[in-house]
Amino acid sequence: MKTTINYDSFHKNIRLQHHIITKKDFTYRNILKILKKHLSGNLEILDIGCGVGSVSFLLAYLNNKVTGIDISSKAIESCKANSLLLGLSQNINFLKIDFPKESVNGRFDLIICSEVLEHIEDEGTAIRKIHSMLKNKGLVFISVPSLNAPLYRWKLSQKFDEEVGHLRRYTSEDITRKLKTSGFDILEIDLEEGVLRNFLFLNPIAKKLIRFIKGPISDLVTFVDILTIPLLGESNIIIIAQKK
Q1: So where are the chain's domains?
Q2: Does position 113 have pLDDT exceeding 70, yes or no?
Q3: Which of 21, 32, 40, 192 has CB 3.0 to 4.6 Å from 236, enough for a Cys bridge?
C-alpha cells in the first residue's frame, strides 16, 4: 500500500513549546522510560522524524548534540524557532530531509526512529541506512505500531492508520528479524501501550483529553493502561538494538 500523505498538514496548527518535557509527560513517557536507560550525556544523537522536536529538545537539554530531521518543512521551521526560544540552538540542529531518500551527514552514537518505519515504503533501505550512520556499537531506538493492537484486531483503527499514513504494522518477531538481517544485535524489546492509552490517541474526541492528563492523573492512567497489556495485548513495540 502506498501513501500520498501531506505531512505538513499535521503541523498546520503547530505551537511553540515553552518548557522542556519531563519524564512523566503523558505523550512521551513510554519512550522516555526506555531511552533514559541508554543516555550517558555528551552523545551525538540523530532523531529521525523529529516532528515538533519535543524529544530532541529534552536530549539537547541533557547535554547531548542532537540533529533532528523531518519530512515536514513546517515542523522543521517550528523546531528551529523553538530551539532559539528554549536556548538550545548550540546543542541542536534541525534539517528538512526526506529519509531514506535523502541522507544525513555524520555518524551517531544513538539514532531514534520513533513511529517512523511504518510510514516508509522502502523500510529495508531505511534500516540499512540507520546501520551505516551509527558509530561502532552505536544504538538505535525504534518504536512501531503493533499488529497485535486490540483496536486494530477489533478493526477500529484502520481509518486512523490510513489517515496518518501507516503502510504496515509489526510483530516483535518481524521487526527483530529485519534488524538482525541488517546487522543489529537486539538488546531490549518492550511491549508498550495498552488499549486505554491507544484509544486516547486514536479517537479524535478522546484525544482532546490528553492535555489534561498530567501529574498524578498521568501516573494513574498509565498504571491502569499497563494492566490491560497482558489481558488484551500491546499497541506499540519498542526495540533497542546495537550495531555489531
Answers
A1: 17-243
A2: yes
A3: 192
- Distance separating alpha carbons of residues 78 and 8, to the nearest angstrom: 11
Q: Is the pLDDT of residue 2 over 70?
A: no
Using CA atoms, how far apart are residues 224 and 193, in angstroms rounded to an integer? 11
pLDDT, mean over the chain: 94
Cβ proximity of 229 and 194 under 8 Å: yes
Distance between CA atoms of residues 64 and 42, nearest Å: 5
**According to the model, what pLDDT value does residue 59 have?**
97
- Residue whose grid cell is 533514559: 36
pLDDT per position as a tens digit, 77-89: 999 999 999 999 9
Q: How far apart are CA 92 and CA 102, in angstroms?
A: 20
